[in-house]
């Protein structure tokens, strides 16, 4: 998921030493897949075992996310890998600082309430729309240490988690907006489908 504005993250690491970021980011970003790419409509497979390959994929996905500048979440599907893996880094929300999250086989256990908020997607550049989703959710998954984790989320975190889990099922946020609004976006979506990738 993307958002238009992102508060700069703590500049401590990059200010102290430019070299440090080189050490931390030795993997290369992956190629993002864009709207119109059939892979975005496929269902991702559960991850049976978390090996070095999964660790590397997660790290590369974080790299890819940070390289976008405005991304706050990414599903493996969006880099063309059909594994049930999402990463989320919303930075700060409501004055609360959040750690980056790596979640394998994420599952929505429960949800309540409804709330409308604007969404964007790294795979659908420059398109945003209001999307209604459950307000509070409980998600379960497996982290990089193969531990089961349960996350109770609301606000932006709940929204990003739902958006990314949708990707694993081949669902895009534009599928969740009303027909009228979608028709208003249809020219833009057709243009994107034909366009060269923007970056
Ligand atoms: Zn997305």
> How far is it from the N-terminal to the C-terminal residue, by CA?
16 Å
CATH homologous superfamily grouping: Peptide deformylase
Count of DSSP H/I helices: 5
**How much helicity do the residues have?**
25-40%
**What is the domain tally?**
1
Q: What amount of the residues lies in strands?
A: 25-35%
> Which consecutive residue ranges, at least 5 long each, have pLDDT under 50?
5-25
Strand adjacency order, main sheet: 1-2-5-8-9
CATH architectural arrangement = Alpha-Beta Complex
Shape: globular
On the 0-100 scale, what is the average pLDDT?
A: 87
Structural class: alpha+beta
State the total count of DSSP E strands: 9
Structure description:
The chain is of the alpha+beta class and 199 residues long. The chain has one domain: Peptide Deformylase, CATH 3.90.45. It has five helices and nine strands. The protein has helices spanning 12-16, 18-24, 52-68, 155-168, 179-194, and strands at 73-75, 85-88, 92-93, 96-97, 101-112, 115-121, 124-133, 136-142, 148-153. It has a five-stranded antiparallel sheet. Strands 3-4 form a two-stranded antiparallel ribbon. A two-stranded antiparallel ribbon has the order 6-7. The longest helix has 17 residues, at 52-68. The model is unreliable at 5-25 (pLDDT under 50). The structure holds zinc ion. Zinc ion is lined by residues 1, 121-123, 163, 167. Residues 1, 121-123, 163, 167 line the site of zinc ion (ZN).
């Amino acid at each position: 998921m993307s958002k238009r504005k992102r508060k700069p993250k703590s500049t401590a690491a990059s200010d102290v030493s430019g070299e440090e970021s080189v050490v931390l980011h030795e993997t290369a970003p992956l190629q993002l897949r864009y709207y119109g790419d059939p892979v975005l409509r496929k269902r991702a497979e559960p991850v049976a075992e978390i090996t070095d390959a999964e660790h590397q994929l997660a790290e590369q996905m974080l790299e890819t996310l940070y390289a976008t500048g405005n991304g706050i979440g990414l599903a493996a599907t969006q880099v063309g890998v059909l594994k049930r893996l999402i990463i989320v880094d919303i930075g700060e929300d409501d004055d609360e600082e959040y750690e980056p999250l790596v979640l394998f086989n994420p599952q929505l256990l429960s949800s309540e309430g409804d709330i409308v908020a604007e969404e964007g997607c790294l795979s659908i550049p420059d398109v945003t729309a209001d999307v209604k989703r459950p307000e509070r959710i409980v998600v379960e998954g497996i982290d990089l240490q193969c531990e089961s984790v349960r996350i109770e989320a609301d606000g932006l975190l709940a929204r990003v988690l739902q958006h990314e889990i949708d990707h694993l099922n081949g669902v895009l946020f534009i599928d969740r907006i009303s027909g009228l609004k979608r028709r208003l976006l249809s020219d833009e979506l057709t243009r994107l489908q034909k366009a060269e990738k923007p970056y």
